[in-house]
Design goal:
Blueprint: H1 25-45, H2 52-61, H3 68-79, H4 86-109, E1 113-114, E2 117-118, H5 120-124, H6 126-147, H7 150-173, H8 181-205, H9 211-238, H10 241-244, H11 250-253, H12 259-267, H13 270-281, H14 289-299, H15 302-320, H16 328-342
Antiparallel strand pairs: 1-2
Helix pairs in contact: 1-3, 1-4, 1-16, 2-6, 3-4, 3-8, 4-6, 4-7, 4-8, 7-8, 8-9, 9-15, 12-15, 15-16
């Protein structure tokens, strides 16, 4: 009789699997052919006999921005199966609108850097920055008219008005530590997310897709835009200057009330609130104040919760695309949401 031998134990080695970081590359690849045409349109439309106009415009346009907003217009046209070429001019219009708002923003905020380079206002002055921004807006509207879609023109021109309203709302809320979270989200919906929403919606409009699909893409853009701005807000206190393309703490030095400030202010003690009033409302800064501000935000989980809010809006954006069948462009758009939120890592 053979001796009983227990079965040999199998040892399983569990290797932790790290999924690759989300990337914008799939989106870039899928729209690259159209984006080449958009870039050509952008270069053609910045031409002017007034030498300073192309100089100022190209300083910012050629400075390495991701061109996310025009890519979204191209992606949505692709998602909708659009076969014309109106999306090229609309995408260029979207980029011009965005560039114009950056030129204007830097003047209002007295910013010194933009996308890792000197802001245009530092090189050519405030007046030139504002006027070249106006020129780009004019060119954007010319291209919209050339496309011949009254609805697309309505969406983008309405967006231009809403963005301006958002800028004024932000100006009114500047240095006001009593700003609520709801008030702040209303500002960034207008100032930042509206252009994302319009950029996404027009791609479906020119493809003459059903209203439900147009609304879904608008929702995608709006919620992605809010998430994008909230991540920017967190990065201003927790990011690195080369990645940001601006100086860490610019929002703090400019007295901007962003969501991390709103949360830290609400959750802090009275002495901490006095610190925020001194630095943001009165603009009275001493050495070490930025580090102290980051410390308060860390203590009250303000940066962490701002990113959580961004993830919430990102989830809504991704859900909006559930209406569409699976496709490479849909997957790329969903990964783009993850990429925008993952900029915090």
């Amino acid at each position: 009789m053979s001796a009983f031998r227990p079965a040999e134990k199998l040892l399983a080695v569990i290797v932790p699997f790290e999924s690759p970081a989300p990337s914008i590359d799939p989106l870039v690849d899928l729209v690259s052919e159209d984006m080449t045409r958009v870039n050509a349109a952008i270069l053609a439309r910045t031409g002017s006999d007034v030498t300073m106009i192309p100089e100022v415009a190209n300083h910012l346009i050629a400075s390495g921005g991701k061109r996310l907003r025009p890519m979204l217009t191209l992606a949505m046209a692709q998602l909708a199966g659009y076969a014309g070429d109106g999306h090229i001019k609309l995408s260029a219009s979207v980029e011009f609108m965005h560039t114009a708002t950056l030129l204007h923003d830097d003047v209002v905020d007295e910013s010194e850097m933009r996308r890792g380079r000197m802001a245009a206002r530092m090189l050519w002055g405030n007046e030139a920055s504002v006027l070249v921004g106006d020129f780009l807006l004019g060119q954007a509207f010319k291209m919209m008219v050339e496309v011949g879609s009254l609805r697309a023109l309505d969406i983008l021109s309405s967006a231009a008005a809403v963005i301006a309203e958002g800028e004024v709302m932000q100006l009114a809320a500047a240095k006001n530590t009593a700003t609520t979270e709801d008030e702040y989200v209303a500002v960034i919906r207008a100032k930042t997310a509206e252009l994302f929403a319009a950029a996404c919606e027009v791609g479906l409009v020119i493809a003459e897709r059903p209203k439900a699909e147009q609304a879904a893409c608008r929702s995608f853009g709006m919620n992605l835009g809010v998430a994008f701005q909230l991540v920017d807000d967190a990065l201003d206190y927790g990011g690195k200057a080369p990645k940001l393309g601006k100086n860490v703490g610019d929002d703090f030095r400019e007295g901007k009330i962003t969501l991390p400030v709103v949360l830290a202010f609400r959750r802090g003690s009275e002495s901490e609130r006095q610190f925020w009033r001194r630095t943001l409302e009165q603009g009275d800064h001493t050495e070490g104040d930025l580090e102290h501000a980051v410390g308060l935000m860390t203590r009250h989980r303000a940066l962490e919760d701002t990113v959580k809010r961004a993830r919430h809006y990102g989830a809504i954006a991704k859900d909006a695309l559930a209406l569409f069948p699976d496709s490479p462009i849909k997957s790329a758009l969903i990964e783009t949401v993850e990429f925008c939120i993952g900029r915090t890592h």
